[in-house]
Amino acid sequence: MNENKQQNSPTRCGSSVVTCCNALTLYAGIGGNRALWPDNINVTAVEIETEIARAYKDRFPNDTIVVGDAHEYLLEMYDKFDFIWSSPPCPTHGQYRYNVGVRAKGYKALYPDMRLYEEIIFLQYHCQGKYVVENTISYYKPLVKPQKVARHYLWANFDIPDIKLPAAGIRSKNKISEWEEELGISLRDYKIPNKRQVLRNCVDSRLGSHVIAQAL
Ligand SMILES: C[S@@+](CC[C@H](N)C(=O)[O-])C[C@H]1O[C@@H](n2cnc3c(N)ncnc32)[C@H](O)[C@@H]1O
Asked: Does domain 2-166+203-215 have CATH number 3.30.160?
């Protein structure tokens, strides 16, 4: 793994002190969930795709970015952070691939990626700080009961009230430029093969802000 900054020593956040907080964002993408986090938090992000990690780093130059496997990083480093956000890949859980892909278009059926539940159970039993695992609403009954917030399932060790967010426009927006405009970013300078997917994958920043506000 390639880490471009030394990890800060961990400290606990009190409800009124956020300047001390070390936060981890796993499966970071280009940082949708992280974009509206308070400025005074030390953020470490883990992303496996080099060019996506480069786009993240350009967007958040003060963050530590690790290019590597988030699942492995969590196992080794979970106790170094006060707040952990994980967004494991959702296609094998979500309703869209199941209903539209497999059932309507004949895509290959796949096993649900159980790293999602490995992380949920691992964090439930080992994490001393605050954590949230975010995923899409699944096509099956979740194996561990989540909180349903906006269009997401969230597994967390704190309460997260529901929030109303405008529809993401998965079907209505098609052009990369439309997504870029909405998110206020440009991927023009990056060699990312499926830019539309990367933009679409971004968690709404207002959800990220709402969630971290409950945690700290
Ligand atoms: C749903 S997106 C994350 C969205 C992000 N949390 C946001 O709010 O913008 C999932 C990301 O995880 C990355 N990814 C997939 N497998 C990974 C792994 N094993 N380790 C680290 N990153 C991974 C993908 O390249 C993709 O950028």
From this structure: no
